[in-house]
Design brief:
This protein is an alpha/beta fold. The chain is built from 11 helices and 19 strands. It has helices at about 15-25, 50-60, 60-70, 110-115, 165-170, 245-250, 255-265, 305-320, 325-350, 360-365, 370; strands spanning about 5-10, 30-35, 45-50, 75-80, 85-90, 105, 125, 130-135, 140-145, 150, 155, 175, 180-190, 200-205, 210-215, 220-230, 270, 275, 285-290.
Length: about 375
Protein backbone atom coordinates (compact mmCIF):
# COMPACT_ATOMS: atom_id res chain seq x y z
CA UNK A 1 0.00 0.00 0.00
CA UNK A 2 1.12 3.54 -0.75
CA UNK A 3 1.45 5.73 2.32
CA UNK A 4 -0.80 8.81 2.35
CA UNK A 5 0.79 12.05 1.27
CA UNK A 6 2.02 14.07 4.24
CA UNK A 7 1.09 17.76 3.91
CA UNK A 8 2.19 20.52 6.28
CA UNK A 9 -0.02 23.62 6.35
CA UNK A 10 1.52 26.77 7.78
CA UNK A 11 -1.24 28.87 9.37
CA UNK A 12 -4.54 28.04 11.10
CA UNK A 13 -6.68 30.88 9.79
CA UNK A 14 -9.69 30.24 7.58
CA UNK A 15 -7.47 29.52 4.58
CA UNK A 16 -5.30 27.05 6.48
CA UNK A 17 -8.28 25.23 7.98
CA UNK A 18 -10.05 25.10 4.61
CA UNK A 19 -6.93 23.61 3.04
CA UNK A 20 -6.56 21.08 5.84
CA UNK A 21 -10.23 20.06 5.67
CA UNK A 22 -10.05 19.54 1.91
CA UNK A 23 -6.81 17.56 2.15
CA UNK A 24 -8.06 15.33 4.97
CA UNK A 25 -11.22 14.72 2.97
CA UNK A 26 -8.99 13.59 0.07
CA UNK A 27 -7.25 11.04 2.32
CA UNK A 28 -4.02 12.86 3.10
CA UNK A 29 -2.12 13.10 6.36
CA UNK A 30 -2.24 16.77 7.31
CA UNK A 31 -0.57 18.75 10.09
CA UNK A 32 -1.41 22.42 10.64
CA UNK A 33 1.24 24.57 12.33
CA UNK A 34 0.04 27.78 13.97
CA UNK A 35 2.39 30.27 15.61
CA UNK A 36 -0.21 31.62 18.04
CA UNK A 37 -0.63 29.76 21.36
CA UNK A 38 -4.43 29.78 21.00
CA UNK A 39 -6.78 29.46 18.07
CA UNK A 40 -7.94 32.89 16.86
CA UNK A 41 -11.30 34.40 17.78
CA UNK A 42 -13.10 36.74 15.42
CA UNK A 43 -16.72 37.84 15.73
CA UNK A 44 -16.75 40.06 12.64
CA UNK A 45 -19.18 39.39 9.80
CA UNK A 46 -18.13 37.66 6.62
CA UNK A 47 -19.81 37.15 3.25
CA UNK A 48 -19.82 33.65 1.82
CA UNK A 49 -20.82 33.78 -1.83
CA UNK A 50 -22.40 30.84 -3.72
CA UNK A 51 -19.03 29.64 -5.00
CA UNK A 52 -17.96 29.22 -1.36
CA UNK A 53 -21.18 27.87 0.12
CA UNK A 54 -21.52 25.21 -2.57
CA UNK A 55 -18.18 23.76 -1.44
CA UNK A 56 -19.42 23.44 2.13
CA UNK A 57 -22.56 21.79 0.80
CA UNK A 58 -20.45 19.22 -1.05
CA UNK A 59 -18.54 18.57 2.17
CA UNK A 60 -21.80 17.71 3.92
CA UNK A 61 -21.86 20.96 5.92
CA UNK A 62 -24.83 22.57 4.19
CA UNK A 63 -27.31 21.96 7.01
CA UNK A 64 -24.94 23.25 9.70
CA UNK A 65 -24.11 26.30 7.61
CA UNK A 66 -27.75 27.21 7.04
CA UNK A 67 -28.55 26.71 10.73
CA UNK A 68 -25.99 29.40 11.57
CA UNK A 69 -26.03 31.77 8.63
CA UNK A 70 -28.43 34.35 7.29
CA UNK A 71 -29.43 34.01 3.63
CA UNK A 72 -30.07 37.60 2.54
CA UNK A 73 -32.74 37.99 -0.11
CA UNK A 74 -31.00 40.94 -1.73
CA UNK A 75 -28.10 43.35 -1.68
CA UNK A 76 -29.37 46.94 -1.71
CA UNK A 77 -27.25 49.91 -2.72
CA UNK A 78 -28.39 53.17 -1.16
CA UNK A 79 -27.55 56.85 -1.45
CA UNK A 80 -25.18 57.92 1.30
CA UNK A 81 -26.94 61.13 2.30
CA UNK A 82 -30.62 60.14 2.51
CA UNK A 83 -30.65 56.33 2.22
CA UNK A 84 -32.71 56.25 -0.96
CA UNK A 85 -32.48 53.02 -2.96
CA UNK A 86 -30.33 53.26 -6.10
CA UNK A 87 -29.97 49.62 -7.13
CA UNK A 88 -31.02 46.16 -5.88
CA UNK A 89 -29.29 42.84 -6.59
CA UNK A 90 -31.38 39.74 -5.69
CA UNK A 91 -29.40 37.09 -3.82
CA UNK A 92 -30.56 33.76 -2.44
CA UNK A 93 -30.20 30.77 -4.74
CA UNK A 94 -28.95 32.44 -7.83
CA UNK A 95 -30.03 30.25 -10.69
CA UNK A 96 -29.45 26.72 -11.95
CA UNK A 97 -26.33 24.62 -11.92
CA UNK A 98 -23.27 26.18 -10.30
CA UNK A 99 -25.21 29.01 -8.72
CA UNK A 100 -27.82 26.84 -7.00
CA UNK A 101 -26.17 27.59 -3.67
CA UNK A 102 -26.95 30.26 -1.09
CA UNK A 103 -25.31 33.60 -0.52
CA UNK A 104 -24.68 33.62 3.24
CA UNK A 105 -23.62 36.09 5.87
CA UNK A 106 -22.31 34.79 9.18
CA UNK A 107 -19.79 35.43 11.91
CA UNK A 108 -16.20 34.51 11.13
CA UNK A 109 -16.02 32.34 14.26
CA UNK A 110 -19.03 30.34 13.09
CA UNK A 111 -17.32 29.33 9.84
CA UNK A 112 -14.08 28.75 11.70
CA UNK A 113 -15.80 26.28 14.02
CA UNK A 114 -17.44 24.46 11.09
CA UNK A 115 -14.05 23.88 9.48
CA UNK A 116 -12.35 23.05 12.76
CA UNK A 117 -14.88 20.27 13.39
CA UNK A 118 -13.71 18.55 10.18
CA UNK A 119 -10.18 18.10 11.48
CA UNK A 120 -8.65 15.73 14.01
CA UNK A 121 -7.60 18.09 16.79
CA UNK A 122 -4.26 16.35 17.27
CA UNK A 123 -3.30 17.50 13.76
CA UNK A 124 -3.30 21.18 14.80
CA UNK A 125 -0.06 22.19 16.51
CA UNK A 126 -0.32 25.51 18.36
CA UNK A 127 2.61 27.69 19.38
CA UNK A 128 4.73 26.40 16.51
CA UNK A 129 6.20 29.42 14.74
CA UNK A 130 7.94 28.38 11.56
CA UNK A 131 11.30 30.06 11.03
CA UNK A 132 12.41 28.43 7.80
CA UNK A 133 12.31 25.35 5.59
CA UNK A 134 14.53 23.34 3.29
CA UNK A 135 13.26 21.56 0.21
CA UNK A 136 14.81 18.46 -1.30
CA UNK A 137 13.87 15.94 -3.95
CA UNK A 138 12.31 13.77 -1.24
CA UNK A 139 10.37 16.29 0.82
CA UNK A 140 10.44 19.48 2.87
CA UNK A 141 12.10 19.93 6.26
CA UNK A 142 10.43 22.54 8.46
CA UNK A 143 12.33 24.56 11.04
CA UNK A 144 10.67 26.20 14.06
CA UNK A 145 11.64 29.11 16.27
CA UNK A 146 11.85 26.84 19.33
CA UNK A 147 14.54 24.77 17.63
CA UNK A 148 12.23 21.94 16.65
CA UNK A 149 11.87 20.41 13.21
CA UNK A 150 9.40 18.36 11.17
CA UNK A 151 9.19 16.85 7.73
CA UNK A 152 6.48 16.68 5.08
CA UNK A 153 6.03 15.70 1.48
CA UNK A 154 4.39 19.06 0.66
CA UNK A 155 4.34 22.46 2.37
CA UNK A 156 1.38 24.83 1.93
CA UNK A 157 1.90 28.44 2.97
CA UNK A 158 -1.48 29.62 4.27
CA UNK A 159 0.08 32.12 6.64
CA UNK A 160 -1.65 35.30 5.52
CA UNK A 161 -0.67 38.62 4.02
CA UNK A 162 2.68 38.69 5.86
CA UNK A 163 3.49 35.12 4.81
CA UNK A 164 6.86 33.78 5.89
CA UNK A 165 6.56 30.95 3.37
CA UNK A 166 6.01 33.42 0.52
CA UNK A 167 8.86 35.68 1.60
CA UNK A 168 11.33 32.77 1.79
CA UNK A 169 10.00 31.18 -1.38
CA UNK A 170 9.69 34.07 -3.84
CA UNK A 171 10.42 37.26 -1.89
CA UNK A 172 8.14 39.92 -0.43
CA UNK A 173 6.03 41.76 -3.01
CA UNK A 174 5.63 45.52 -2.77
CA UNK A 175 2.53 46.33 -0.79
CA UNK A 176 0.07 48.70 -2.43
CA UNK A 177 -1.77 51.00 -0.03
CA UNK A 178 -4.90 52.77 -1.20
CA UNK A 179 -5.20 55.69 1.20
CA UNK A 180 -8.04 54.19 3.20
CA UNK A 181 -8.88 53.12 6.72
CA UNK A 182 -11.33 50.27 7.31
CA UNK A 183 -13.48 49.68 10.39
CA UNK A 184 -15.52 46.63 11.31
CA UNK A 185 -17.75 45.68 14.19
CA UNK A 186 -21.12 44.28 15.18
CA UNK A 187 -24.16 45.53 17.07
CA UNK A 188 -27.65 44.38 17.93
CA UNK A 189 -30.09 44.63 15.03
CA UNK A 190 -32.59 46.31 17.37
CA UNK A 191 -30.22 49.30 17.51
CA UNK A 192 -31.04 50.02 13.86
CA UNK A 193 -34.78 49.31 13.70
CA UNK A 194 -35.14 50.87 10.25
CA UNK A 195 -33.09 48.14 8.59
CA UNK A 196 -34.65 44.90 7.40
CA UNK A 197 -32.90 41.80 8.74
CA UNK A 198 -33.03 39.87 5.47
CA UNK A 199 -30.73 41.91 3.22
CA UNK A 200 -27.24 43.33 2.86
CA UNK A 201 -27.20 47.12 2.65
CA UNK A 202 -24.43 49.16 1.00
CA UNK A 203 -24.32 52.92 1.39
CA UNK A 204 -22.05 54.50 -1.20
CA UNK A 205 -20.59 57.96 -0.81
CA UNK A 206 -18.20 59.96 -2.97
CA UNK A 207 -15.16 58.77 -0.98
CA UNK A 208 -16.44 56.34 1.65
CA UNK A 209 -18.78 53.39 2.00
CA UNK A 210 -20.60 51.44 4.70
CA UNK A 211 -21.78 47.83 4.36
CA UNK A 212 -24.20 46.27 6.85
CA UNK A 213 -24.93 42.53 6.86
CA UNK A 214 -27.27 40.51 9.11
CA UNK A 215 -25.56 37.81 11.19
CA UNK A 216 -26.38 35.63 14.21
CA UNK A 217 -29.67 34.57 12.61
CA UNK A 218 -30.55 38.22 12.09
CA UNK A 219 -30.14 39.23 15.72
CA UNK A 220 -26.95 41.16 14.99
CA UNK A 221 -25.72 43.48 12.25
CA UNK A 222 -22.10 43.22 11.17
CA UNK A 223 -20.62 46.20 9.38
CA UNK A 224 -17.53 47.22 7.46
CA UNK A 225 -16.82 50.88 6.75
CA UNK A 226 -14.06 52.26 4.53
CA UNK A 227 -13.07 55.92 4.73
CA UNK A 228 -10.13 58.01 3.45
CA UNK A 229 -7.14 57.79 5.78
CA UNK A 230 -6.92 60.61 8.30
CA UNK A 231 -3.14 60.59 8.17
CA UNK A 232 -0.78 60.87 5.25
CA UNK A 233 1.07 57.95 6.78
CA UNK A 234 -1.35 55.48 5.19
CA UNK A 235 0.97 52.60 5.97
CA UNK A 236 0.55 53.00 9.71
CA UNK A 237 -2.00 50.78 11.35
CA UNK A 238 -4.74 52.96 12.86
CA UNK A 239 -5.54 52.64 16.57
CA UNK A 240 -7.79 49.79 17.60
CA UNK A 241 -11.34 50.72 18.52
CA UNK A 242 -12.30 54.26 17.46
CA UNK A 243 -16.11 54.44 17.46
CA UNK A 244 -15.94 58.20 18.05
CA UNK A 245 -13.82 58.70 14.94
CA UNK A 246 -16.14 56.40 13.00
CA UNK A 247 -19.16 58.47 14.00
CA UNK A 248 -17.38 61.64 12.94
CA UNK A 249 -16.56 60.18 9.52
CA UNK A 250 -20.24 59.40 8.88
CA UNK A 251 -21.82 62.35 10.65
CA UNK A 252 -23.62 63.69 7.59
CA UNK A 253 -24.84 60.35 6.30
CA UNK A 254 -28.27 58.69 6.23
CA UNK A 255 -30.04 58.09 9.57
CA UNK A 256 -29.46 54.31 9.52
CA UNK A 257 -25.72 54.81 9.01
CA UNK A 258 -25.57 57.26 11.90
CA UNK A 259 -27.48 54.76 14.04
CA UNK A 260 -24.86 52.09 13.25
CA UNK A 261 -21.96 54.34 14.21
CA UNK A 262 -23.72 55.47 17.39
CA UNK A 263 -24.43 51.91 18.55
CA UNK A 264 -21.09 50.35 17.56
CA UNK A 265 -19.12 49.27 20.60
CA UNK A 266 -15.75 47.62 20.08
CA UNK A 267 -14.56 48.60 16.63
CA UNK A 268 -11.65 46.98 14.84
CA UNK A 269 -9.67 49.13 12.43
CA UNK A 270 -6.98 48.34 9.88
CA UNK A 271 -5.29 49.67 6.76
CA UNK A 272 -6.40 47.74 3.64
CA UNK A 273 -3.66 46.91 1.20
CA UNK A 274 -2.89 44.38 -1.49
CA UNK A 275 -0.12 43.74 -3.98
CA UNK A 276 0.06 43.04 -7.68
CA UNK A 277 -0.84 39.45 -8.60
CA UNK A 278 2.15 37.18 -8.15
CA UNK A 279 3.81 35.65 -11.18
CA UNK A 280 4.09 32.32 -9.40
CA UNK A 281 3.01 30.71 -6.14
CA UNK A 282 5.40 27.81 -5.92
CA UNK A 283 8.94 26.60 -5.98
CA UNK A 284 8.30 24.37 -8.96
CA UNK A 285 8.63 21.50 -6.51
CA UNK A 286 6.90 20.69 -3.24
CA UNK A 287 5.90 24.11 -1.87
CA UNK A 288 2.96 26.37 -2.75
CA UNK A 289 0.76 29.17 -1.38
CA UNK A 290 -2.94 29.50 -0.64
CA UNK A 291 -5.38 32.24 0.36
CA UNK A 292 -4.11 35.64 1.47
CA UNK A 293 -0.52 34.45 1.25
CA UNK A 294 -1.06 34.09 -2.49
CA UNK A 295 -3.69 36.71 -3.34
CA UNK A 296 -4.65 39.26 -0.64
CA UNK A 297 -7.82 41.09 -1.68
CA UNK A 298 -9.28 44.43 -0.80
CA UNK A 299 -12.73 44.20 0.87
CA UNK A 300 -14.81 45.24 -2.16
CA UNK A 301 -15.92 41.93 -3.70
CA UNK A 302 -16.70 39.84 -0.61
CA UNK A 303 -14.64 37.03 -2.14
CA UNK A 304 -11.73 36.52 0.25
CA UNK A 305 -13.11 33.46 2.06
CA UNK A 306 -14.78 31.93 -0.99
CA UNK A 307 -11.52 32.11 -2.94
CA UNK A 308 -9.73 30.35 -0.07
CA UNK A 309 -12.27 27.54 -0.23
CA UNK A 310 -11.81 27.26 -3.99
CA UNK A 311 -8.02 27.15 -3.52
CA UNK A 312 -8.42 24.36 -1.00
CA UNK A 313 -10.62 22.20 -3.25
CA UNK A 314 -8.36 22.65 -6.26
CA UNK A 315 -5.21 21.90 -4.26
CA UNK A 316 -6.65 18.73 -2.75
CA UNK A 317 -7.99 17.55 -6.10
CA UNK A 318 -4.65 17.89 -7.88
CA UNK A 319 -2.58 16.40 -5.05
CA UNK A 320 -4.94 13.42 -5.04
CA UNK A 321 -4.84 12.82 -8.79
CA UNK A 322 -1.44 13.92 -10.12
CA UNK A 323 1.33 11.30 -10.24
CA UNK A 324 3.80 13.46 -8.28
CA UNK A 325 3.54 16.45 -5.86
CA UNK A 326 5.48 18.82 -8.10
CA UNK A 327 3.18 18.13 -11.04
CA UNK A 328 0.11 18.55 -8.80
CA UNK A 329 1.26 21.93 -7.53
CA UNK A 330 2.02 23.17 -11.04
CA UNK A 331 -1.51 22.18 -12.13
CA UNK A 332 -3.00 23.85 -9.06
CA UNK A 333 -1.13 27.08 -9.74
CA UNK A 334 -1.98 27.06 -13.44
CA UNK A 335 -5.67 26.66 -12.59
CA UNK A 336 -5.98 29.09 -9.72
CA UNK A 337 -3.50 31.92 -10.27
CA UNK A 338 -5.16 33.48 -13.36
CA UNK A 339 -8.60 33.33 -11.79
CA UNK A 340 -7.64 34.76 -8.40
CA UNK A 341 -5.68 37.50 -10.17
CA UNK A 342 -8.85 38.52 -12.01
CA UNK A 343 -10.90 38.58 -8.81
CA UNK A 344 -8.12 40.38 -6.93
CA UNK A 345 -7.85 43.12 -9.55
CA UNK A 346 -11.64 43.35 -9.81
CA UNK A 347 -11.84 44.02 -6.09
CA UNK A 348 -9.19 46.70 -6.43
CA UNK A 349 -11.09 48.33 -9.29
CA UNK A 350 -14.23 48.50 -7.17
CA UNK A 351 -12.35 50.61 -4.64
CA UNK A 352 -12.03 53.41 -7.18
CA UNK A 353 -15.64 53.60 -8.31
CA UNK A 354 -17.51 53.71 -4.98
CA UNK A 355 -20.43 55.72 -6.31
CA UNK A 356 -21.10 53.44 -9.27
CA UNK A 357 -23.35 50.44 -9.55
CA UNK A 358 -21.12 47.37 -10.01
CA UNK A 359 -20.84 46.57 -13.71
CA UNK A 360 -19.68 42.96 -13.33
CA UNK A 361 -21.98 39.95 -13.54
CA UNK A 362 -21.98 37.12 -11.02
CA UNK A 363 -20.66 34.75 -13.67
CA UNK A 364 -17.69 37.03 -14.37
CA UNK A 365 -16.81 37.22 -10.69
CA UNK A 366 -17.32 33.59 -9.81
CA UNK A 367 -16.93 31.65 -13.07
CA UNK A 368 -17.06 28.62 -10.88
CA UNK A 369 -17.89 25.75 -13.21
CA UNK A 370 -15.30 26.90 -15.72
CA UNK A 371 -12.21 26.74 -13.55
CA UNK A 372 -12.86 24.63 -10.47
CA UNK A 373 -12.79 20.84 -10.57
CA UNK A 374 -15.50 18.89 -8.78
Amino acid sequence: MTSPLRVAVCGAGLGGLAAAAALVRAGMEVTVYEQRPRLPEDETALHLAPNGSRILQRWGLGAQLLALAVQPVAMEFREWSDGSLTWRQPLGRMGPGAFAAPYCTLLTDELYDLLLARLPQERIRLGRRMSGFRESADGVELEFADGGAATADVLVGADGVRSLVRSRLIGTPRRVYHGATAYSGALQSDDVPGLARDRVTVWLGPEARMVGAPVAQGEQLGFVAVVPSRSRAARQRPPHGRPGALAADFGGWAPDVKAITAAAGGVRSWTPYDHAPLKRWGSGGRITLLGDAAHPMLPYHGQGVSQCLEDAVALARHLATAPAPAQALRRYEALRLPHTARVQLGSRANAFRPAAVPDVTWAQVYDIEEHLPD
